[in-house]
Amino acid sequence: MKIFGLTGWSGSGKTALMVRLIPALTARGLRVSTVKHAHKGFDIDHPGKDSHNHRVAGATEVLVSSPRRWALMHELRDDEPELTLSELVAKLSPVDLLLIEGFKREPHEKIEVWRAAVDKPLIAAGDSSIVAVASDGPVPGCPVPVLDLNDAEAVAAFVVERCGLGHP
Question: For the Molybdopterin-guanine dinucleotide biosynthesis protein B (MobB) domain, which residue ranges apply (predicted)?
Answer without folding.
Answer: 3-136
